[in-house]
Design goal:
Order of helices and strands of chain A: EHHEHEHEHEEEHEHEEHHHHEHEEHH
Number of domains of chain A: 2
Largest sheet of chain A: 7 strands, mixed
CATH architecture of the largest domain in chain A: 3-Layer(aba) Sandwich
Distance between the termini of chain A: 56 Å
Radius of gyration of chain A: 21 Å
Helix content of chain A: 40-55%
Number of strands of chain A: 13
Oligomer: homodimer
Structural class of chain A: alpha/beta
Chain lengths: 392, 392
C-alpha cells in the first residue's frame, strides 16, 4: 500500500451543497490548532455565538454550533425536546420531513404527518387542521427551505399557528440560513437547526442551533434522560455556556470552528439583508436564463427558494449524461433529483459565496453547450444573454 | 457588532489533545472543497478506509471515520450494538469508563462496573471474575489508553477473556491509535473507536471506527431500531460502503476528511511500528527529565502510556499558576488533572506530531524555569540535560 496525498480537483459547486467555499474560510481553517479550553479559543467561541445570533436574527442565549453535520443538529433538537409518548406534527413536502419522522419515532414519540406534494410549500391550512385535531401535540416540526425540491415554506405563519395552539416549533433552516429571510426571535421559533455548508459557504460538518427560553424550560424539566450522551444539551451547555469555568464535554472541532467563525464574519461584513437580496438577484438572473431556454421550474412562483433552483429536465436530455459531462468537461457540479424527483429534475444551487454572477453565466453557458451538443434545439447564447441582461 | 477574523496564537500543544497538527495536514484542510458525492471524493474515501485499516491494524471491511468527535464514535458503538435489557461489563479506571456507563444506560441497558483506581490499568482478574458472575453479559467495554490518567490497559488479555466468555468487546482507542501498539484483527476486537486529534495529530472532529464481522452480525440482527438516526450504522453504511451507488445519508465533512487522509498518509510513510517506537523514545526522554527533577509519575512503570504522561504536581507548586505561566510566557499548553486527579497532576501529552525531541526539551526547560522562578529548589538545566542524554 502506498497512498499519496490527495489533491482535489477545483470544482464549481452549484449542487444542493456543499457550495463553493470562500478562500478566506479555507485560509482560516489552515490556521494553527489551539486547545479547546485555551482562553483565546473560548473568546472565539463567544464571538461565534454572537455572530450566529446575528445570522439567525435571534437574541436567544442558547445559540451555538453542534460539532457535527446538520443531521446531528436535527437530532439534537428532537432528542432534547421529546420524551417517550409525546406527539409531534411533522410537515413533509420533501426528503427532510421524512427524516424528521424518523427522529420522532426513534425518540419513542408519535409523528402525525401533514403531507404536501414534493415541490410545494407546506400548506398552512392543513397544518391548522392538524393542530385542531391534535390538541395534545407538543411540537410542530417543519422545514423552511426544502433542499430536495427547492420549495420555501412560510415559517412565520406556521409558527403563529403553532403558538396559537400552545405548540413548540422545531424548524429546519439548513438551506435557508444566510440565504433567505429568517427572523428567529421575531417569529418566535423554538428549536432551530442549520448547516455550515449551504448559504454560509463554510465547509460541511457543523450545525448551528438556537433554542428559545420556552424550549429550554421544556428541556430542563424533562422526566427522562436525553437518549444521546453526545447531543445532551444539559451536558453540552456546561462547555458552551460555562462562562469562566467550562466543563469538558467533548473536544471541539477547533479548525472547523475557525472556518465557521470566518464565514460568519464575512456575512456580518456584507450585512444579512444584503446577502438575502443577493440571493434573489442571482436567482432572478438564473431564472431569466432558464426561461429563455424553455426550461421550467418545479416549484411555483412565490414558493421558490432563490438558493436552490429545481428545474425540470428537458425532454430527451439524459440526466446522468448531462451531469457527468458538466462535471468532466466543465468541472461544474449540479445536483440530481432526490426521492420522488430522482431523474426528473436538476437542482442548481446558488448558495452563499457561490451565489454570484460568474456562476450564473458559467452554468447557463455550459448547460447550453452540452444540451446543444447532444442535439437539443437550443439557440446558443440566448440563456446567457437573458441572464446577463437581468443584472443591468 | 463588528467582529474581526480570528488569528489564533501559535501554541505548542502538549496537553491531553488536541496535539500539534502537522502543517501538511493544515495545508490539506485548506484545499478546495468538492462535493461529497464527487467521484474524486469517493476515491479519497476509499483510500481513507484503507489507510484507517492500516492504522487500526485491521482487515475489517467496516472501517471508516464518523463525522463527529470521539464521543460520537463511542456512542455509535454502544447504540448500534446494544438493545434495551442488554447487560454490559464496563471497566472504569478514569473518566472515560464513566462515560461508557452513561452510554450503556441511555441505551436502556445495564452496566456492571469493574472499578480500578485512577492511574491503574484495568485488572484482568477482576474482569475475569465479572465475566464469570455475569454469563449473560453481551459486551465487555474498556479503554485502551485512559487519557485522564495516563494508564494503558492490556487490550489483548482483556479481549481474550471476553472471547472465552462469548462476549463482544467495545474498545476505546482514542488516545492509543497511532501511538501505542494496537492490533485490532490479531486481538479480535469487535467495536473500536478513536479520535483524530491525539496520536494521528489531525484536527479534532472525526472519530475513526472499525467493527468485526461478529459485531456487524449482531447489528444486522437487531430487534429494535437504533435510537440515533445520525449514528445508525445501517444507514451510514449505505454511504460509506455503497460501492458504485452511494446513498445520501448526511453531507460528509469534506475538508476535515482531507485532513484525516493526509494524517494517515503521513502515518503510512513513517510506518506504524516506527511511530509506536518514536512515542516510546520521546516518553523515555521526558521521563529521564522528570526523574532528574524529582517529579514522579502517577502510573506505575509497565502500565504507562508513552503519549500521555501524568505526573504529580510537586509540593508547593500552584497548579493553575504554573499552567497559566506556561501558556502566557511560553505559549505552551499542558493538561490539568481531571476528576479524581484534578489539582493533583499535570498531564503532558507527547502525541503524534507533537512527540518529538524539541517539544520534550522545550517543555522540561520551560517547566524548570517557571518552578525555579516560583521558589522551588530546582537545579536548573538538569532535567533538560538528562532528557538530551537519553536521545544519544
Amino acid at each position: 500500500m502506498s497512498i499519496k496525498s490527495f489533491h482535489p480537483p477545483v470544482r464549481t459547486l452549484m449542487g444542493p451543497g456543499p457550495s463553493d467555499v470562500n478562500p478566506r474560510i479555507l485560509g482560516a481553517m489552515a490556521r494553527p490548532t489551539i486547545g479547546h479550553l485555551d482562553p483565546a479559543f473560548v473568546m472565539m467561541m463567544d464571538e461565534t455565538k454572537e455572530l450566529l445570533r446575528y445570522a439567525f436574527q435571534t437574541d436567544y442565549g442558547l445559540t451555538m454550533p453542534v460539532s457535527a453535520p446538520g443531521s446531528a443538529g436535527m437530532e439534537m433538537c428532537f432528542v432534547n425536546i421529546l420524551e417517550p409518548g409525546d406527539k409531534v406534527i411533522v410537515c413533509q413536502n420533501g426528503v427532510f420531513g421524512g427524516r424528521m419522522k424518523e427522529n420522532v419515532e426513534r425518540c419513542g414519540a408519535t409523528a402525525v404527518m401533514v403531507e404536501d406534494e414534493w415541490g410545494a410549500a407546506v400548506d398552512p391550512n392543513k397544518v391548522e387542521a392538524a393542530l385542531k385535531s391534535n390538541p395534545d401535540a407538543k411540537v410542530l416540526a417543519f422545514v423552511h427551505a426544502e433542499t430536495s425540491t427547492g420549495a420555501m415554506s412560510d415559517v412565520r405563519t406556521l409558527a403563529q399557528l403553532a403558538q396559537a395552539n400552545d405548540c413548540l416549533t422545531i424548524v429546519d433552516t439548513v438551506t435557508s440560513l444566510g440565504g433567505s429571510e429568517l427572523r428567529v426571535s421575531d417569529w418566535g421559533l423554538d428549536a432551530v437547526y442549520s448547516g455550515s455548508q449551504k448559504c454560509l459557504s463554510c465547509t460541511p460538518g457543523l450545525s448551528p442551533v438556537t433554542f428559545s427560553e420556552r424550549a429550554l424550560a421544556v428541556i430542563k424539566n424533562r422526566k427522562t434522560r436525553v437518549q444521546s450522551w453526545f447531543l445532551d444539551l444539559n451536558l453540552v451547555l456546561g462547555y458552551w455556556e460555562g462562562g469562566g469555568k467550562r466543563a469538558y464535554h467533548h473536544t471541539a472541532p477547533v479548525n472547523a470552528l475557525y472556518g465557521l467563525h470566518e464565514a460568519l464574519v464575512i456575512l456580518q461584513e456584507e450585512g444579512i439583508e444584503n446577502a438575502w437580496a443577493r440571493h434573489w438577484q442571482n436567482h432572478n438572473a438564473l431564472k431569466a436564463g432558464f426561461e429563455a431556454m424553455g426550461i421550467s421550474f418545479v416549484v411555483k412562483e412565490g414558493e421558490r427558494l432563490p438558493q436552490l433552483n429545481a428545474v425540470t429536465i428537458p425532454e430527451g436530455a439524459d440526466d446522468a449524461v448531462v451531469r457527468s459531462r458538466l462535471l468532466n468537461e466543465y468541472s461544474l457540479e449540479i445536483g440530481a433529483g432526490l426521492g420522488a424527483l430522482a431523474g426528473k429534475v436538476w437542482r442548481i444551487g446558488l448558495m452563499g459565496f457561490a451565489s454570484n454572477q460568474k456562476n450564473v453565466l458559467f452554468c447557463l453557458g455550459a448547460l447550453e453547450a452540452v444540451l446543444a451538443d447532444m442535439g437539443a434545439k437550443i439557440s446558443l447564447g440566448v440563456a446567457v444573454d437573458a441572464a446577463a441582461k437581468s443584472y443591468r
